[in-house]
Amino acid sequence: MLRLFGMALALVLAAAPAAAEEIRAVYSARLYGAPVGQVIMAYNDNGRSYAASGHFRTTGLVGLLARVRFTMKARGNGTMLDMNPTSYSEDIDTGYRTSAIAVDYAASDRRIDPLSALLAGLMDRPAESGCAFQRETWDGQRKMRVIINAAETEADGDVLCQGVARRVSGYTEKEMANATEFPFTIRFAPKGGVLEVQRMDIVTIHGRVALVRR
Fold first, then answer.
1. Are 126 and 117 in contact (CB under 8 A)?
2. How far apart are CA 55 and CA 93, in angstroms?
3. pLDDT tens-digit profile of 162-184?
4. pTM, entire model
């Protein structure tokens, strides 16, 4: 699912709430171990609302992957682990599909946008917060359920969280026949009461993608 691949390749801050502090992380994006680009993730909130946006374009590639680009913007209320979006927009080319949309969310809508869902998995957080997460995403047409299970501590002290993204509705028959579930893992390193993201591995329609913290 290149939507998840694209989402994981595209997060840079654009406009943030006033008096907010930027949280930033840089990743190397790799497909089957080969570098395909750089991911810059950033997120701001002031305790009441948040804003984020992003852009990614593959580099040094030819063929289908050379087309991949992803720009997203999101605003909402709440904080990183309890996000309630008010607006979302995307301009993407997955190599298979292009999309340029803008979506507004009602206050009663518990669905979140794809960017906010990715932020919930790929940003550092207080160790006591863990990584358990379950929400439905909606981009105005497609609905997906994202589930991240409770953390497991590895022998080396790192924390591993496993999850899955499942297509629910809004996809074509061909897309559903191609794949409906996309498993992923997120590895954190505990540092001073904070879980710092080290890498994310996800199975996509293009192959296994890894985001490795730089």
1. no
2. 12
3. 999 999 999 999 999 999 999 99
4. 0.83
* 3-state SS class at 136: strand
Note whether 56 and 8 are within 8 A (CB).
no
Token code pair at residue 144: 């997906």
Nearest C-alpha neighbor of 162 from the set 126, 145, 182, 186: 186
Going by C-alpha positions, the residue among 85, 67, 68 that lies closest to residue 76 is: 85
Integer Cα distance of 197 and 182 in angstroms: 20
Report yes or no: 168 and 143 within 8 Å, Cβ to Cβ.
yes
Q: What is the pLDDT of residues 41-93, one digit of tens each?
A: 778 888 889 988 777 778 766 666 777 778 888 999 988 778 899 999 998 88
Is residue 3 within 8 A of residue 94, CB to CB? The reply is yes
At position 126, the amino acid (one-letter code) is P
Residue 9 in this model has a pLDDT that exceeds 50: no
Flag whether pLDDT at 14 surpasses 70. no
Q: Considering only CA atoms, which of 150, 143, 91, 90 is closest in space to residue 112?
A: 143
User: CB under 8 Å to 207, separation ≥6 — which residues?
Assistant: 31, 32
Check if the beta carbon of residue 53 is closer than 8 Å to that of residue 25. Answer: no
168: amino acid identity, one letter: V
Q: Helices in the chain by DSSP H: which ranges?
A: 2-7, 114-122, 173-178
- The CA-atom distances, in angstroms, between 158 and each of 30, 34, 164, 186, 194 are 21, 24, 20, 10, 12
